[in-house]
Amino acid sequence: MSSRRxxxxxxxxxxxxxxQIADLVSKLQQLLPExxxxxxxxxxxxxxxxxxxNYIRNLHRExxxxxxxxxxxxxxxxxxxxxxxxSLLMQ
Amino acid sequence: xxxxxxxxHVESNCGTSSSSSSSSVEPKRKRRRIESSDDVEENExxxxxxVKRWRTERDQRIYSSKLLQALRHVxxxxxxxxxxxxxxxxxxxxxxxAVSAKGATRWxxxxxxxxxxxxxxxxxxxxxxxxxxxxxxxxKTVETITTKKKLxxxxxxxxVLGRLIPGCRKASCLNLLEEATDYIAALEMQVRAMxxxxxxxxxxxxxQQPPADDRLGANIAS
Lengths: 91, 222
Prior knowledge:
The complex is a heterodimer of chains A (91) and B (222). By secondary structure, chain A is mainly alpha-helical. Helix content of chain A is 74%, strand content 0%. Chain A has helices at residues 9-31, 45-76, 79-90. Chain B has helices at residues 2-11, 18-33, 36-51, 57-77, 86-100, 106-123, 127-138, 152-164, 173-208, 214-220. The longest helix of chain B has 36 residues, at 173-208. The model of chain B is unreliable at 1-24 and 139-147 (pLDDT under 50). Chains A and B meet through helix 1, helix 2 and helix 3 of A and helix 4, helix 5, helix 8 and helix 9 of B.
């Protein structure tokens, strides 16, 4: 039933993961706003990773700022308004 | 087709990862019997789902309403404490985001496990060890030993990335990249949802304050 050979498994796995890694790197590149417009050939993996780290740090900072702002806003609004807001959101 | 896919996600909304694990067992049995063409179809569907996963408006709306519920719940519980802190809001938002991920990704499991261990720590110290052990057991990923030589620069950046994404310190390169794509999309949705929530709240607040000059107040709002 299983014709697997345990010896060829490690090299077989690395052959598969090479393509998958390249695929994932290109997918990641599409997500990043800075690298989206450039040609995919010119961008190295290191640059993609660097931009990814920077982008994630930026997003973290934005989330922090937004949560500060939300905490200030929530401190002053009423609970009755939250119901109104939720009905607005569901539309 | 987009709504069809998101309906599937909403159906299995109970928050447990059991539904996703049971659905992953069945395709394995099917693949042995059926030819590779079905494999291609499944791969395409999976790819489509990952692309559109955090991007649809419906996902964002679901996240916003859940976030609001969670915030009200936390507020109701902490009446004794003085005021809202940014840290609380951030933790709540992260927790709701992780719940929306339905436990399919590593970072979501790590976020939920860390928040759970924090709560348990307040009561029982020993439970923290149990949760950490559970976390390791739940790990679905296989750590592959890559025989390919990687440049040290790339390796360093991979490690930095692993530190940034919660729960991915020891993940292999492949898993790390997968987690990164999902995490970035989820964070973008979180930012969009929180920004729109903040705008609505500020607009509502400004309408509330000048009750006499209602028409003028609404115009000055933005």
